[in-house]
Design a protein that fits this description.
- By secondary structure, the protein is of the alpha/beta class.
- Helices cover about 35% and strands about 10% of the residues.
- The protein contains ten helices and eleven strands.
- The strands form four sheets. Strands 6-9-1-10 form a four-stranded mixed β-sheet, covered by helices on one side.
- The longest helix has about 30 residues.
Length: about 290
């Protein structure tokens, strides 16, 4: 399901004990961008926005002379909550505009996000760059493009599909998940991962084509995982089991070699790590 990500891991440090700061997108990504736990940054629900006094990673790197670009594909990483702070160019593909509905499928697919990110990167010429790319696809609803569904074919012909409405019926631990339907969902999820992996590959090629491959630090991680009735529920956001908060983390240095790190780390550790790499001072409070 992930040959491009596996290849990245083969030339970088793979963290075997990386943990999300929260089991769902909004507080988890805000913890990455602020190096604070949700109890500190307080962006823990709809209608909240990052307080002005809390610095972000993008603000810190822009002050150090970096061009900053952010390209995100879900409302919970959008400007509504303050994720745009510090970015010279921030594109949430209209998700922060009035009229957004969770069930409407308005999120841009990973190929659209990567297209915009690579175009912006190419426009920066030789400036130092901080590029943040958020890909939503491996997430309910599980709806990979047709060629990727074909890679994981399934004979399920029941009444349910891979939309949120169907999946949410099984969030209750007392409602059992039919085995054939679970297999269908996992196959669809695998198709999403494979599609996203190809877009990660395109993004890495874009870095190389922009002449940055030999000097770029690449960090790949996630905000949360998904449960498929591992502990009674579906999806994420309601529990703190490993399948939901144990996330991938790869840090590939220019010309780096593969290594594995078993020290427990979290998304909050990325901010001070990246500022140190960039030669910038981390602000107080991280």
């Amino acid at each position: 399901t992930s040959p491009h990500i596996d290849a990245l891991a083969a030339r970088g440090a793979r963290f075997d004990a990386a943990w999300a700061a929260a089991p769902w997108t909004l507080p988890s990504i805000m913890s990455i961008q602020t190096s604070r736990y949700p109890s500190s940054h307080r962006v823990e629900n709809d209608g909240l926005k990052l307080p002005a006094g809390i610095p972000t990673l993008a603000e810190t790197l822009r002050a150090a002379g970096y061009a900053t670009g952010g390209f995100v594909s879900h409302i919970y990483a959008s400007r509504l909550f303050g994720f745009d702070r510090g970015f010279d160019r921030f594109d949430d593909f209209g998700l922060s505009q009035p009229g957004y509905r969770l069930e409407a499928g308005l999120e841009p697919t990973a190929d659209r996000v990567v297209d915009q990110a690579v175009t912006w990167l190419r426009e920066q010429k030789h400036r130092p760059v901080f590029l943040f790319v958020h890909l939503f696809d491996p997430h309910w609803p599980y709806d990979p493009p047709a060629p990727y569904r074909a890679l994981f074919p399934d004979a399920y012909d029941g009444p349910l599909d891979a939309t949120y409405d169907s999946i949410s019926k099984f969030q209750d631990p007392l409602v059992p998940l039919p085995p054939a339907y679970k297999t269908f969902l996992v196959d669809r999820y695998d198709g999403e991962i494979r599609f996203t992996d190809d877009q990660v590959g395109r993004l890495l090629r874009g870095v190389a084509q922009a002449g940055r491959e030999g000097r770029a630090w690449i960090v790949l991680t996630a905000d949360h995982g998904e449960e498929f009735k591992d502990h009674g529920s579906m999806g994420h956001g309601r529990a703190l089991y490993e399948e939901v908060i144990h996330v991938p983390l790869i840090v590939a240095a220019p010309g780096g070699r593969a290594s594995r790190v078993d020290t427990p780390v979290s998304g909050i550790d990325l901010f001070p790590t990246l500022t140190a790499i960039a030669g910038a001072a981390a602000p107080p409070g991280v």
